[in-house]
Amino acid sequence: MFRRATLKDVANELNLTVSAVSKALSNHPAMSEATKELVRKTAAKLDYQQNKIALSLKTGKSHVIGVIIPSAEKNFFGSVVHGIEKIINPMGYNLLLFQSNESIEYEMKGIDTFLHANVDGIIASIAKETTHYEHYAEIKNRNIPLILFDRAEESLGVHTVKIDDYTGGYIATEHLIKKGYKNICHIAGLQHVQIFGDRLKGYLDALKSYNMEYHDSMVFHGKNSIESGREGMKYLLENNEKIDAVFCVEDFTALGAMQMLKEANIKIPKEVGIIGFANESFSQYISPSLSTIDQQTVHMGEEAANLFLKLKDRKNIYAKIESIVLNPIIVERDSTRRK
Known about the structure:
Layout: H1 7-14, H2 18-25, H3 33-45, H4 52-59, E1 64-69, H5 75-88, E2 94-99, H6 104-116, E3 121-124, H7 134-141, E4 146-149, E5 159-163, H8 165-178, E6 184-188, H9 194-209, E7 219-221, H10 226-239, E8 245-248, H11 251-263, E9 273-275, E10 292-294, H12 297-311, E11 323-326, E12 329-331
Parallel strand pairs: 1-2, 1-3, 3-4, 4-5, 5-11, 6-7, 6-8, 8-9
Antiparallel strand pairs: 10-12
Helix pairs in contact: 1-2, 2-3, 5-12, 8-9, 10-11
């Protein structure tokens, strides 16, 4: 008859006490990293599985982290989740994933679900629809680790991991300038979301730094979607006779803009150059391939997970706010390569 391996089996294999093995598997600070790694490998070899319910009752910890993403359709968020899992799974944590579908109602439901599940921490990216943050403040009030990634809200005073969106907007625009484009427009995102406002500021400052032409009709305020990209491109073509390049707030918007240009028989990048933001998985496969800004998504997830591990044993989680800012990386492809 099959018998599951026990803590004692792992302890006997390593000539350690059951208590030492238990502490190592629980990531106890008294145990060395070498011992923890050895115990984890031996436990995996023996197919030992911790009794999560018993462990939760004993420690008051669920060893579950709740993660809220705005959309599972975007590779960006999936890559961040991959980075989170790379770090937390070997440390004995499981991930509970909730998709807000960019809705504040679903976002609130997800947080309520996590709190009732007694998760040990929450890692989230704010939905586009969200304009008030009481549900996030409740997590903070309960002294549960909350880490916001990508889309954050400074007024909350919580821990964050994001890229420098202002610099991303600046270097995307600067890239077009250095490619010789003279009349560069922007399809912006929802401005109550800080990261999209920062990208707009980067665009405006880059134009100013290089003494480039600017007027209000060169910016279309969209909603971050393929359709918004189509609408924005139509508006910009109708209102900017000399337009020769567009910086799009994200890649799906850029995809819609490219569709509209093709329908108008406007050649990319010869007549109009296009650059996006996010480096979505499709961007290298469309024709022409899309220049974009890479947000180091897997690394972002890893940093968020490591930040949780750093915060989880603090008595006062928010006594010192941690903010990690990653550098955006420009990815040049055919949509901005003038022959």
